[in-house]
Design goal:
about 30% helix; globular; 5-stranded mixed sheet; alpha+beta; about 15% strand; about 220 residues
Length: about 220
């Protein structure tokens, strides 16, 4: 689900894109083409809209697992609430880059796995302070430095994406024997470390948890 058209700045991190896609191809079309080239039997439903578009929400309701790779905390909060309403496990990926004077100063990322019976992301990851700060002043793009160029972070994104895939496989198959499950993985791209933490207890009064299982009449 993505309404973006491939931009030249995406080329360094959008696997499967080619120069001819720039300014012409939807990102979802690029992914459809790539997956078809790997296995023609894979069924892809490309949706060129943003959530909460009705078509996107209708498909999301049928999912066994949702993986969110979003640019804003507000969008994360909305998808988190949706997954609570429909009791769908959610895996959230995020990467934050900070450069100064052409030098990488910070490269932190996360993979969080929450299920209907655990704390949700709004309990701890998507805080009121983060939402308020973003509403006041949000630098565009991956890099928190608004004067930075276009960071090529495909290697770091790939680390997080691979962990997310492993989390999906474990939710479906249980291959880890309970060693993975719900949790949060914190990634430091500069040192290459990835550390797992248990989820906290659900937050009393969490606005998203209060909607658990209630569905959504909007959709």
């Amino acid at each position: 689900i993505d309404d973006d058209i491939v931009d030249v700045t995406n080329r360094g991190r959008l696997i499967g894109s080619i120069p001819a896609d720039v300014d012409t191809s939807l990102k979802v079309a690029v992914m459809d083409r790539l997956l078809a080239s790997i296995d023609p039997e894979i069924v892809v439903v490309p949706i060129a809209h943003q959530f909460p578009d009705a078509e996107a929400a209708a498909e999301m309701k049928t999912a066994d697992v949702i993986v969110a790779c979003l640019d804003t905390w507000r969008a994360r909060a909305d998808v988190d609430a949706f997954c609570r309403r429909y009791a769908i496990p959610l895996i959230d990926i995020g990467m934050e880059i900070l450069t100064k004077d052409g030098v990488l100063r910070r490269a932190h990322g996360h993979v969080t796995v929450v299920t209907p019976d655990t704390a949700c992301n709004r309990c701890f990851l998507i805080t009121d302070a983060r939402l308020a700060h973003e509403q006041r002043e949000r630098p565009a793009g991956y890099d928190r430095n608004p004067d930075a160029g276009d960071p090529q972070v495909v290697s770091m994104n790939g680390t997080l994406a691979a962990e997310a895939v492993s989390a999906v496989l474990d939710l479906i198959t249980g291959y880890s024997g309970g060693r993975r499950g719900p949790g949060q993985w914190i990634y430091d791209g500069r040192s290459g470390t990835l550390e797992r933490f248990d989820l906290p207890a659900p937050r009393p009064g969490c606005p998203n948890c209060s909607q658990s299982g209630h569905a959504d009449p909007t959709f």
